[in-house]
Design goal:
The chain is mainly alpha-helical. It has helices at 23-44, 47-67, 89-98, 104-107, and strands spanning 3-5, 11-12, 83-85. α1 (23-44) runs antiparallel to α2. The longest helix has 22 residues, at 23-44.
Length: 108
């Protein structure tokens, strides 16, 4: 789904930030969680503490992996987090007000 930036009027797909929606970062977090759980008793002195910390890190990694398949929320043109859906009422008002051209296949 294409989006419109309310700051710079960019029309296109958003991008993800460095840590948000980065599939490689998510996989790394899950790997670190496995290492924490596997070696946790040795370094953290408690398996229960290691399991809790590992679970938190694993959940963050899974969220990043899932988020990497969604559209980004950051405008690739100006870098701001001001993207709205192109088919929204607010986007239609901005497009009409600023006389922006939208490709025909993007309107439907």
């Amino acid at each position: 789904m294409q989006k419109l930036c309310t700051k710079c009027n960019f029309i296109g797909k958003g991008k993800h930030g460095l840590f948000s929606g980065n599939i490689y970062f998510g996989i790394s977090e899950v790997a670190v969680a496995v290492i924490i759980v596997a070696t946790g008793e040795r370094f953290l002195q408690s398996y229960a503490y290691a399991a809790v910390v590992g679970a938190i890190v694993a959940i963050a990694g899974i969220i990043n992996i899932i988020d990497s398949f969604s559209d980004g929320r950051i405008c690739p043109s100006c870098g701001k987090d001001n993207l709205i859906q192109l088919d929204s009422l607010q986007a239609a008002e901005i497009i009409e007000e600023k006389n922006l051209s939208v490709p025909e296949d993007e309107i439907n």
